[in-house]
Amino acid sequence: MKHIFKLMLAIISLFILVSCKTNNNLYDEDNFLETGDKIVKEKITLKFFAPLHPLHHPDGYNAMRLFQKMEEITNIHIEWDYGPTQTYAEKKAIAIKNIKEYDGYFLWNTLKDQINLAQYDAIRPIDDLIDKYMPNYKEILENNPELIKLAKLPNGKMYSPVAINDTPRDQTFKQFINQKWLDNLNLEMPETIDEYYDVLKAFKNNDPNLNGINDEIPLSSTRLGNLSSFIMSSFGYVSTGIELNNNNEITYVPTTNNYKEYLKFMIKLYEEGLLDNSYFTMNQSDLTAKGNRVGSFDGAAAYLVVSEKYDDDYTAIPPLTSDINPNKVWLGFHSNSPQTFMIPSHTPYYREIARWIDFLYSEKGRQLQAFGEEGKDWQWDDENQSSFTFNVPKGMNIESYRGRLTPSVGLGIVTYFDKDFVLKENNKIINNINNAVENAGYLDYLKIPMPVLNFTDSENTELAIIQTDLDIYLDSFEERIISGKSEFNDDIWEEHLSRLNRLKISRLIEIYNDALNRYNNS
């Protein structure tokens, strides 16, 4: 019995020892390969946390072509833990609290996340890893040094690679107008905001469909869309928030006379029924339900609102000017974002992870994360590789199918949405979007309201309070004024400015100035 007891004790002790082993105990230094497609000699399993979108493969990331091929090529298996996009903030907070359970955090790693974790040395800087183990990404940085400035935290170090999208159609939103209606009514494409108003009036008062039914909606959008940016741009700014003015000074746009003119114009559109009076309550499904009854709307693509059947009827409106703004300007998006990956400091697999990430910046990795595997999911149309065809199953939506191949659907870019490959897609709908952006000339007039700035932890805390108060007030103010629930005159305007001052816009601008100075000096 004594021998049996000792044996059982030994087994239990061994079980506890194995169960308590950390990655450091298990790590095999000789298993790592510094070069070649394969990253490790014997297969290893790493645990990553990532967001999961409803459009993604129902069986998760490992059922996606991208990660199936990556495992085959690199010899690294990933065990995924997810934060569904609907409850992501809550799940991510738990995952960060239990950081020692993970070898990495894939996608949606905000600068605030990085700053918070870096101050406790909970995540590893990647500056040295880029030089040693990430040749594809290193070459990109050498050709685009601005990306380094974008990724550096206030402490001067980089903690995540930058997700890059240089595809023109994704640099901004599009404001569409029904070209068929313009032709039916013998109208020219508007060039000024007043001409745009005249076009909307014609859409309302006539029968642009020439079908004897006057049920057209001249202009529609959702409250969370980019209509305000479209109208505001004609008055000289591309946002209704914090923005650099023409003198490169930080301005809070709702304090400017330009914003005052924007409000007057929106009031006129609403009063005269030119702007859909459901604007403040409508969601994307509501807008889509109205389909081709809408003469003008904003979005990523016309077919997403009016269906593929009527996609050809719509084209993009170029930037407009006004009496107070003779210069064309258009909202540009932050298409590059340092949010790809965070490596916890405790994991011994930082070299393997660096090489795994770098694969995604290779030509093969770029193709896989965009449209899946060559020969299965897409194929070149000719020997010169001038175009390719994406093999979407019949009856399936393009993005729904892509979501089964890659997580780039619904989450933004994985690592690199490369125009040199993406623009070769042979697809009539996609070609329409590309042509609309080119014909409207958006890229010639793009303005990003502010560069991506890094704020300190205390600045972030203070900004969150100020910005929340401002957003709540401004949303309520705009709805009351534009919908006519409250009148708008000079006294109301002065009261509005006083309210903004009480909500600490001077402190907001001061914080942004400090961050902008750090950015310019980095």
Summarize this entry quickly.
With 522 residues, the protein is α/β, with parallel strands linked by helices. Helices cover 43% and strands 11% of the residues.
Write a structural description:
With 522 residues, this protein is an alpha/beta fold. It has 22 helices and 16 strands. The chain has helices at residues 2-20, 23-26, 65-74, 88-97, 111-118, 127-133, 135-143, 146-151, 179-184, 193-205, 227-234, 257-271, 284-290, 303-306, 350-360, 363-371, 398-402, 419-422, 428-440, 457-482, 490-502, 505-521; strands at 44-52, 76-84, 104-106, 164-165, 174-178, 217-219, 242-244, 250-252, 294-299, 314-316, 330-331, 341-342, 378-380, 388-390, 416-417, 446-447. The protein is globular and about 75 Å long. The termini are far apart. 35% of the residues are buried.
Determine the N-to-C terminus distance.
71 Å
Q: CATH homologous superfamily of the largest domain?
A: Periplasmic binding protein-like II
Quickly give the structural class. alpha/beta
Based on CA inertia axes, which overall geometry fits?
globular
Mean pLDDT: 93
Strand order of the largest sheet: 2-1-3-12
Instruction: Give unreliable regions as ranges.
Output: 1-24
Largest sheet: 4 strands, mixed
CATH topology descriptor of the largest domain: D-Maltodextrin-Binding Protein, domain 2
Radius of gyration: 26 Å
The number of E-state strands comes to 16
Content of β-strand: 5-15%
Query: What is the annotated CATH architecture of the largest domain?
Result: 3-Layer(aba) Sandwich
Number of helices: 22
Our count of domains comes out at: 2
What's the CATH class of the largest domain, please?
Alpha Beta
